[in-house]
Amino acid sequence: MSSTELGIDLLKAKTKEFIGSREVKTGVLCHPASVTKAFEHIVLILEKATKLTTFFGPQHGIYGETQDNMIEWEDLKDSQGRPIYSLYGKTRVPSDQSLREVQLMVIDLFDVGSRYYTFQYTMAYMMEVCAKLGIPVIVCDRPNPLGGELIEGPILDSRFRSFVGRYEIPVCHGMTIGELAFLFAEKMSPKPKIKIVPMKGWRRRMFWPDTKLVWTLPSPNMPNFEAALLYPGMCLLEASTLSEGRGTTRPFELIGAPFFEWDKIEREYQKLCRSLQLLPVTFHRQGFIPTFHKFAGQICRGALQISPNPLKFKPLRHAVTLLWIFRQLYGRDWDWTSPPYEYEFEKKPIDILMGGTETREVIDSGGSLKQLYRQWANDEKKFRRTRLPFLRYR
Prior knowledge:
Layout: H1 7-13, H2 15-19, E1 25-29, H3 42-49, E2 51-57, E3 76-77, E4 83-86, E5 104-107, H4 119-133, E6 137-140, H5 177-186, E7 194-197, H6 208-211, H7 225-234, E8 254-257, H8 262-276, E9 282-285, E10 301-306, H9 315-330, H10 349-354, H11 358-365, H12 369-386
Parallel strand pairs: 1-2, 1-5, 2-4, 5-6, 6-7
Antiparallel strand pairs: 3-4, 8-10, 9-10
């Protein structure tokens, strides 16, 4: 079976059709994962087809070198003296001045299918500024590694907008980055002049392994598909004093704390999964000592989480169920972290991740998960209808 053809592969094959004249001054928003399926980077492609003048990079840097979360990087120049502008430093929004030598903007970012992942909002800010300046935008589409059908979680309450949630979408949206670009563009004024370079051979039921593509790290703590599958849930641990596995080689798969007792945790987890009709993960007991971040240098009693069936797995429900158990068993031993978090300085990080306060309140009070998940189901059904006009793959 052949692998999925990426948007960048089609752009390479048909550069004149999508870009036009070789003299057009082009800017690019990219990162290390902006490669063809044969690992040719988009910069090399654009240098052959256009007059490449300007570079922009998202969180973690254009080369992916800022390892930890919320580490800013600043503008620099490439070996030819061309500017590389940071969109995760002094600003998240490109300035008019940074686009003065750009007649066409090309965006190629690997998104992992969760509302929290900041690359989609870096793309949105770029689209907004380009729309204002009359600069056309091309987005090279890429697979959502979680497929095109997984929709999970509450729709963002607009009062909780942040750099980890700008639009009213659920935590798992089941859309490609190109489809998100169409959805975001509909909410912008003026509207951007946008063109999506589509994929070939991708279907909505395809998870990452089905694409037959090699995983290239979209960010330093997203080393494989398994981490991406767990990320929509385990990212919530970033908003707690518990370890989400940063500082190990398996972030988001490994979780833990020095005081955990996994026999107790697993008994309660299996019981709740049966009650809530959730497919449970397998917990492989694995101690770890983080090299940085929470509990750095301390022994954590951890577990590696293994999903037996990605098609039936609900990563957000899994994580919230675990957090509910952690609160009941170890209520005084951990807490939610305080702001700032991703440029939000007032609201709790857990609330901006979940897009509201209700999930935190249910966890802290020992409230009904069944009722919470029923409310999510209403939002999931609503968004499934909302996204229909923006889907490009059936």
